[in-house]
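User: Can you recover a sequence for this backbone? Please restate the input before giving your answer.

Assistant: Of course. Working from this structure:
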């Protein structure tokens, strides 16, 4: 069964664009990789249940379900898909892992797979099949779902790129012809926008996706949660500089960001309350495909940019990663692998990426050539999100500790406390240090 009653606010459809641009289908991209027999044979009488996060663009779920129906038609395997809010998938996945009952396949976020790797089916054979066929997996994907460098505990699905979303007219009115590329220029721009009565806004609540800008802030100044040996080092001079900078940045924010969750900045942006934020491409897609003339006009004014580079001297992108986990308790492991294989093959994955309208950046290098990334130049900044991102547990090795620390919003809470003034930067860092050390026990 499917559920279409979640997160109506950001409904938009990219399916019309997909049909117009993709033409006769994905076969135009890779005739050489098609028509190969599946190495996985579904068990007799197999039935699958899939739990996934609810869509942010309507084209995603529309094409996803078309692909599901195509799989059932081809194999006879019945597939039920349940869509849930982002915040609901993680606890439901944890319950399923701990009780040994529930969905066969779960599509979740970030390094959730590392919370219970022993509860997940080994999908190394499937990952190697797809990697060899489609140009290889990005290293960032392997960091999340192949933490020991050998065994694949899940598959990557892609990334919802967190890019700067801004109103071009408001930047120009504040004296900026282009989005700044460094943190000094970014702060000056935010101050100028605030002075013009068009403030910026970035989520400081427990927002699974949009709160990831806090990682960028810390990393941009050379701070990090842990070092390469998984020693907690978040309380550092580098993090302190990031938080002092953040205090200046926070002064330019619209009120209320401390309680913002993932939908909050979308609403504020499309309501004209803010001039810039960080988000996936869903704001643009929703406005572009809306029947409301005012939103269509806003879409023409929207543009995207990568996050500014800070004193660290290199891009420090943090994006929302999507994984695909097969639970070890499934009665139909071969069917589950075959279903994921089918969904990741070019015939299905290319149209799905296209229908997502740029919301999901591919995990396999081959799909960089999908026309969604060049059909609209405003989409292009999102293309390399998966390839360029740092994992949330940077610079350490991912595992139980990184997954737990991420799920506990330690970095987001530290930034929120420090830049809002509820704690001094040193107090916020020290609290984050102690909280993180509970996960990264020596």
């Amino acid at each position: 069964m499917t559920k279409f009653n979640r997160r109506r606010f950001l409904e938009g459809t990219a399916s019309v664009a997909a049909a117009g641009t993709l033409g006769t289908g994905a076969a135009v991209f890779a005739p050489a990789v098609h028509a190969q027999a599946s190495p996985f044979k579904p068990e007799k009488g197999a039935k699958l249940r899939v739990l996934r996060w609810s869509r942010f663009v309507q084209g995603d779920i529309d094409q996803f379900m078309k692909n599901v129906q195509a799989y059932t038609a081809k194999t006879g395997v019945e597939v039920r898909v349940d869509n849930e809010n982002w915040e609901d998938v993680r606890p439901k996945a944890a319950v399923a892992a701990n009780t040994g009952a529930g969905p066969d396949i779960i599509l979740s976020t970030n390094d959730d797979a590392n919370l219970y790797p022993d509860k997940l089916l080994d999908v190394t054979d499937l990952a190697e099949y797809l990697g060899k066929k489609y140009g290889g997996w990005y290293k960032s994907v392997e960091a999340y779902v192949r933490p020991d460098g050998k065994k694949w505990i899940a598959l990557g699905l892609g990334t919802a790129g967190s890019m700067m979303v801004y109103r071009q007219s408001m930047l120009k009115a504040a004296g900026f012809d282009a989005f700044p590329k460094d943190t000094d220029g970014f702060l000056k721009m935010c101050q100028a926008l605030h002075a013009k009565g068009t403030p910026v806004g970035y989520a400081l609540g427990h927002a699974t996706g949009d709160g990831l800008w806090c990682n960028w802030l810390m990393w941009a100044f050379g701070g990090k949660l842990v070092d390469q040996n998984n020693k907690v080092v978040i309380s550092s001079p580098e993090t302190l500089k990031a938080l002092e900078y953040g205090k200046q940045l926070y002064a330019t924010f619209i009120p209320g960001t401390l309680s913002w969750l993932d939908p909050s900045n979308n609403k504020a942006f499309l309501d004209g309350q803010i001039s810039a934020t960080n988000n996936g491409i869903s704001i643009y897609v929703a406005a572009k495909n809306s029947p409301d003339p005012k939103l269509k006009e806003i879409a023409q004014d929207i543009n995207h940019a990568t996050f500014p580079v800070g004193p660290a001297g290199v891009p420090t992108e943090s994006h929302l990663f999507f994984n695909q986990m097969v639970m070890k308790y499934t009665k139909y492991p071969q069917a589950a692998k075959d279903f994921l294989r089918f969904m990741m093959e070019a015939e299905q994955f290319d149209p799905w990426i296209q229908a997502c309208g740029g919301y999901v950046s591919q995990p396999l290098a081959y799909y960089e050539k999908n026309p969604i990334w060049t059909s609209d130049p405003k989409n292009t900044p999102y293309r390399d999100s998966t390839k360029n991102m740092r994992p949330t547990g940077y610079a350490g090795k991912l595992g139980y500790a990184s997954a737990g620390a991420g799920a506990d919003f330690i970095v987001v809470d530290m930034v929120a406390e420090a830049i809002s003034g509820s704690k001094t930067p040193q107090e916020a860092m020290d609290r984050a240090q102690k909280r993180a050390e509970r996960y990264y026990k020596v």
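That completes the design. The first strand starts at residue 47 and ends at 53.
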